[in-house]
Amino acid sequence: MRLPFCAGGAAALWAILAVSSVHADMAGHGGPVRALAISPDGNGLLSGSFDSAAIRWSLKAETAEEVLRYHADAVNAVAFLNDGRMVTAGADARIAVWMAGRRQPDRVFEGHVGPIVALAVSPDGALLASASWDRTVRLWSLSDGVSRVLEGHSQNVNGVAFTPDGGSIVSVGYDLTLRIWRLPDGQPEIVKLPAPLNAVAVAPDGEIVTGAVDGMLRMLTTDGKVSGEVSAGPTPVVALAMSADGKLIAAAGIGGTVAIIDRKSRSLLRTLVGPGAPVWSVAFLPDGETLMTGGADGRIRRWNARTGDPIGSNLVGTPADPLVAYAGDHGADVFRACVACHTLSDKEVQRAGPTLAGLFGRKIASLPGYRFSDALKTMDIVWTPETVAKLFEVGPNAYTPGTKMPEQRIGSAEDRRALTDFLGRATSR
């Protein structure tokens, strides 16, 4: 996943208009909704977006009450504190703590050197944990901002959660490991799993649930033993939420669906189908039945998780497959893994990464309106079939060091050639 920066006038205008407008499907962000959190009383919602803004919503009125603008890049994680304050964290590696009604954060935590993608608040409300693509977890004191670094992951850390007693922190990463950090000493128990991990949640009874890029949910005991697994779907799981009673798990996938899992029976109850765009975030209301989802189209939707029915005027239908016109095209099949983050046309709503429209012949990091890593701006690469093939042959970390793009390779020369042939046809329209 790449993380964009959308600072255009349209994005700002949408955020401003949302403050005074009622939207049953809660449209206010100018980009994909990357993070959701529910207030302790269940009446408020905090959302973070690739548009670099966070919005505090009233769930009763379904209106935006406040737009929080501070971060210089995507807001990837949000949380409510026990006292009603809000926390936002972003791809700019900063954490901001807010009081409702104030235009600037009361406190800013700095220390991470890569995008922050997940937050967790300790049960007693005294500590904040953050997960970052700088391969660390940090533990912050909310009283004085003092932080502690937990090191050990060898790739991006994508998720973090506290155990119910607050005695441990669980982190998951792209390095295939789940780590249980026992506090106060912080020594981890390390569990190796079969696939890169994108998300983690912990049940009230202490059971750990992870979501992986292979579409699987894996359950682990408090001491890290795998105790079950469920397939959430064919596409990577990118977000997890658990109901307050621990009975239901919502697993969001980049394919545009959300799987509702019965945790005790390890069974798929139903799949919620939205408009087809990736679902980046999920959160349960305290009733254990109402689920909020945040999509790539910038909208927040409300569902009855037990029946699968949308609540309000949510847009529901068959997922729109952007590759339907390329059925049977091998290159399109290879590209399907890229659909979550990249569009083929600049007429579509921007996703996590820049559009690929007009890709070949374009210098790296030169697309207007997208904030690229500083390291990319100094590179002398022009995208051609050969350079794109090389990118996936050696991997982004080796070919474009400093990129926000996670490590991925295409081992088959035939697959790389099919992909570049497809991009030549599909992005030149």
UniProtKB/TrEMBL annotation:
Protein name, as recorded: Cytochrome c
InterPro entries, per database record: Cyt_c-like_dom, Cyt_c-like_dom_sf, Cyt_c_1A/1B, WD40/YVTN_repeat-like_dom_sf, WD40_PAC1, WD40_repeat_dom_sf, WD40_rpt
GO molecular function, one term: electron transfer activity
Superkingdom: Bacteria
SMART domains given in the database record: WD40
WD repeats, residue ranges: 26-67, 68-98, 109-145, 150-191, 272-313
Transmembrane feature ranges: none
Alphabetized UniProt keyword annotations: Electron transport, Heme, Iron, Metal-binding, Repeat, Signal, Transport, WD repeat
Keyword Cell cycle set for record: no
Residue ranges occupied by any Cytochrome c domain in the UniProt entry: 326-427
PANTHER family: TRANSCRIPTION INITIATION FACTOR TFIID, TRANSCRIPTION INITIATION FACTOR TFIID SUBUNIT 5
Matches recorded under CDD domains: WD40
Residues spanning the signal sequence: 1-24
Pfam families: Cytochrom_C (PF00034), WD40 (PF00400)
